[in-house]
Amino acid sequence: MTPPQTKTGAKTTRQPEQEGFRQAMSWLHTWSGLILGWLLFAIFVTGTLSFFKNEFNMWMRPELHGLPPPDSDVAQRAQAALHRHAPGVSNFIMRLPDERTPVVNVLWRDKPNSRFEALLLHPQTGATLQARETAGGEFFYRFHFELRTAHKGRWTIQGRWVVGVATLMMFIALLTGVVTHRRIFKDFFTFRPRKGGQRAWLDAHNVSGVLVLPFYLMITFSGLMIFHAMYMPAGIAAVYPGAKGTDTQSYFSELQGDAPGARSARRGSNAQAEPLPMLDLAPMLSQAGQLWRGGRVGSITVRSDSQGPLVEITRHDGDRLQYGPARLRFDGRTGQLQTQVDPQSPAIKTYGVLYGLHLARFADIGMRWALFGFGVMGSLMIASGLILWSVKRRAQALRKTPAAPLPFGERLVASFNIGLMGGLPLAIAAYLLANRLLPLEMPGRPDAELSCFFGTWALALLLGLIRPMRQGWALVLGMAATAYLLLPWVNALTTSTHLGISLPAKDWSWAGMDLSFAAMGLMLAALTRHLLRARPQPAARHAGPAKGAAAPGRKPGTQLISGDNAAQEA
Amino acid sequence: MKATSPLIHYRLAVASRSVAAVLGGYALAAVSTAALSLLLNFWMSRVEAAMTATLLSWVIYAIAIAWTFYARTAWLAWAGVLLPALALSAVLYGPLWLGVEA
Q1: Nearest to residue A566, comparing CAs of A493, A477, A488, A470?
Q2: What are phi and psi of A389, to 5 degrees?
Q3: Closest by Cβ to B47, choosing from A172, A228, A255
Q4: CB-based contact (8 Å) between A21 and chain B?
Q5: Percentage helix, strand, coil, to 5, in chain B?
Q6: pTM tops 0.90
Q7: Which residues of A touch B30 (CB under 8 A)?
């Protein structure tokens, strides 16, 4: 089956159908974009924030501010502290401190197949650190790929399916977009904001769509591949037949460079979970340093099974592009190196590079900001497309009848644009404010933070439904601007990690957060000001009729309350 | 899918093609991936075979979807994805089913 899908082929052989094909594509693009746009927007925004997951995790635990650089013996001290804290521990994963997360992060359990408990330890002394309970940056990360709504997971499989379908649609839209887009190169250089209205929105949509197209292709394709065993299991099922369907366990073992059923510190039956003894980690760590020629150790995984303790030392995932990192496996009792695991066969490596590109663990600060910028562009591409849908229809309606009322469908889309897109930055600000303002000893605190997030989002949607036009935008964005501008102040009043301390100390990973919130607040404030000021003149109506549509019939002055509301909200 | 046909008919045709694209395309991609995995397994390890085929599956999916919108009629769109999928699965699973019966 080889469909002649190039444009030139279509032109020569089927002149009459040409418009039909493009028309169908355009129709499909419009409607699938409308249905999936809000979801993709939320996925893009939270994914973009996840590039700074570690920084959010730290900022949302201000108790961890000001920790010293790690000590070389920290793993041993942390192990001792873990044994004091949990004498029966039989399985743990210890992430060693690095420059982004200067704290020892331990996940441990003492019963087979139970949920891991988290423990934070001092990077030098190994002492237990107390930090507030928070969903942290993990929430953005989890929402990004499984639409997580509760701190300890809920409907995560369903969420992954929904995200997968949306990702696939975006991937298809990108590919068909490339095939059908007549002027893809020209659009690089076309942006006419002065033209106003529909033209400007279309240009914005095209520019943000075309400029970072390789990034979108990479991010959607790798996103599909990360969950390939779930989204496209047919190939695995064909070559990994098992007693009960597919032998997925063996597949994942081999994918990670192990023989099926190999003894591993990560997987395997934990039925006889003997409490672990104290192990001498230092010789293993120094051997790892030699083998990796100074490469950093990322984490240490220890598990006991019927043959005793097994230690796995994983290289830092920031050391290279390919994910996952190389591993060394030691016998815990003798300290003998058993296996070096680092599969490098072509397909696995391709997969690992795609995975690594998506997670961006390799990225240094400059690269990280660049990727963040691409993510922002993607969010703007989706947002401008959705707004274009509204603006275009409004312009058409007004051209026919100058004072046409808003039909139900268009009103709904306009409301959703305000509530779901405009409301998202507001909800994120509310989530961050909740992190600072909720009582520290509150039970179920992470879920309360999430309630603030989803509650605010719902509130914004309600506002959008009540005021589906310009006023609604101004109200929601004005509230968001106020909330972001308040964040550094609230931080200053509730913690000792504020700009007054982090700026003089040149503590950029902390100061950068507050400064970014302030910048976001200023940008949103400028946008709100623009929305409130730029009243369309009657003469300019033809340029931006959709913008003017909100004005007639609405009481002037109602939008002025936005500032007060935002203050109460915050 | 002519421009002169009524709007509702046109949209139904596009909707039918969309379903053919998403579901039919998936079926074709999945069966092709299974077949390709088995085929590649002759030359490479099974994890490499499965991963190579799965990496390519999305390309197959994309081509199948492009076909469903390129085909002259919605019927052809369906036939173009379903017939190869059925043929491939007959080759793949036919012997298995016959073997089970025998």
Answers
A1: A477
A2: -55, -50
A3: A255
A4: yes
A5: 85, 0, 15
A6: no
A7: 232, 234
Residues 6 or more apart whose CB falls under 8 angstroms from that of A217 comprise: A171, A174, A175
Nearest-angstrom CA–CA distance, A187 and A167: 24
Q: Which residues of A touch B11 (CB under 8 A)?
A: 27
Determine, yes or no, domain membership for B1: no
Listed by number, the residues of chain B in 8-47 with a beta carbon closer than 8 Å to a beta carbon of chain A are 11, 14, 17-18, 21-22, 29-31, 33-38, 41, 44-47
Residue A542 has φ and ψ, to the nearest 5°, of: -65, -25
Distance CA A320, CA A325 (A): 8
Mean pLDDT of chain A: 84
Query: Which residue do the tokens 């099926």 mark?
Result: A260
Phi then psi for A149, rounded to 5 degrees? -115, -10
Indicate whether B2 belongs to any domain.
no
Question: DSSP string spanning A316-364?
Answer: -TTS-SSSSPPEEEEETTT--EEEEE----HHHHHHHHHHHHHH-TT--
Long-range contacts of A406-413 (CB under 8 A, 24+ apart): A406/A468, A406/A469, A406/A549, A411/A468, A412/A468, A413/A34, A413/A386, A413/A389
Spatial CB neighbours of A89, under 8 Å, sequence gap ≥ 6 = A82, A83, A108, A109, A110, A275, A276
Q: What is the pLDDT of residues A335-384, one digit of tens each?
A: 999 999 999 999 999 999 999 999 999 999 999 999 999 999 999 999 99
Whether A20 has its CB under 8 Å from any CB of chain B: the answer is yes
Contact B54, A235 (CB under 8 A): yes
B29 belongs to a structural domain: yes
Question: How many other β-carbons are positioned within 10 Å of the β-carbon of residue A340?
Answer: 13
Largest alpha-carbon pair distance within chain B? 55
Count: domains in chain B: 1
Q: Which residue range forms the structural domain that includes residue B84?
A: 7-101
Residue B85 has pLDDT above 50, yes or no: yes
Domain residue extents for chain A:
18-61+133-253+345-402, 69-131+258-342, 405-570
Residue B3 has its nearest CB partner, among A19, A171, A221, at A19
pLDDT of residue A346: 94
> Least CA distance to A229: which residue of chain B?
B54
Q: In degrees to the nearest 10, what's the CA dihedral of A187, A190, A194, A195?
A: -60
Q: Judge whether B88 lies within some domain.
A: yes
Per the CB < 8 Å rule, is B57 touching A232?
A: yes
Name the amino acid, one letter, at A376.
V
A160: Cβ–Cβ under 8 A, 6 or more apart, which residues?
A145, A146, A227, A230
Tell me the pLDDT tens digit for each residue of A506-539. Answer: 889 999 999 999 999 999 999 999 988 866 544 3
Interface test with B, best of A221, A236, A240, A344 (most B CBs within 10 A): A236
Distance CA A466, CA A283 (A): 66
Residue A425 near residue A456 (C-beta atoms within 8 A):
no
Whether A71 and A97 have beta carbons less than 8 Å apart is answered as: no
DSSP A403: T
The minimum CA-CA distance between B84 and chain A, rounded to whole Å, is 7
Which residues 108-167 of chain A have a CB within 8 Å of chain B?
Answer: none
